[in-house]
């Protein structure tokens, strides 16, 4: 078996993992939430409107503030949607899983033992750290 076949097996294992399944279900729920999709569409239209207003030679500060306030309100509503909350959590969990998978692969490329190597969970922020390695 070569490295590409093993990689495909890893891909299959990832797709069968609870984290991936949870992410896919949350993504599907988002896609089927008509209210959420309408809010996202409205948000995107507001961003376009703000961009158009900002590129005008004679900017209307009051109008830009009004549009920006609507953008913030729309964004807040989107982020408070239960499906969006579930999606963001599932997405963060999937990202963490993939970060660990990639970390293990990186360590293996550095010659570490594939059976025992553990990637660092360093976030890059020393303020939340108990110390390096």
Shape: elongated
The biggest beta sheet is recorded as: none
> Which parts are unreliable, with pLDDT below 50 for 5 consecutive residues or more?
none
What is the gyration radius calculated from CA atoms? 22 Å
SS summary, helix count: 5
Secondary-structure-derived class = mainly alpha
The tally of beta strands, per DSSP, is 0
Summarize model confidence as the mean pLDDT: 93
Q: What's the end-to-end separation, in Å?
A: 35 Å
Instruction: Indicate the percent of residues in helices.
Output: over 70%
DSSP strand content: under 5%
Order of helices and strands: HHHHH
Overview of this protein structure:
By secondary structure, the protein is mainly alpha-helical. 74% of the residues lie in helices and 0% in strands. It contains five helices and no strands. The chain has helices spanning 3-16, 18-32, 34-55, 61-80, 82-109. The longest helix has 28 residues, at 82-109. The radius of gyration is 22 Å and the shape is elongated. The two termini are 35 Å apart. The mean pLDDT is 93.
């Amino acid at each position: 078996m070569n490295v590409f076949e093993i990689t495909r097996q890893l891909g299959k294992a990832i797709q069968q993992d609870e984290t991936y399944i949870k992410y896919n279900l949350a993504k599907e729920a988002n896609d089927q939430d008509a209210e959420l999709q309408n809010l996202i569409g409205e948000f995107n239209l507001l961003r376009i409107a703000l961009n158009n207003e900002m590129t005008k030679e004679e900017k209307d500060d009051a109008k830009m503030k009004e549009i920006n306030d609507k953008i913030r309100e729309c964004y807040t509503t989107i982020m408070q949607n239960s499906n969006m909350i579930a999606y963001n959590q599932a997405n963060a969990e999937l990202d963490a899983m993939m970060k660990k998978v990639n970390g293990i692969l990186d360590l293996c490329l550095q010659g570490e033992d594939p059976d025992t190597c553990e990637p660092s969970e360093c976030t890059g922020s020393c303020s939340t750290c108990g110390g390096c390695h």
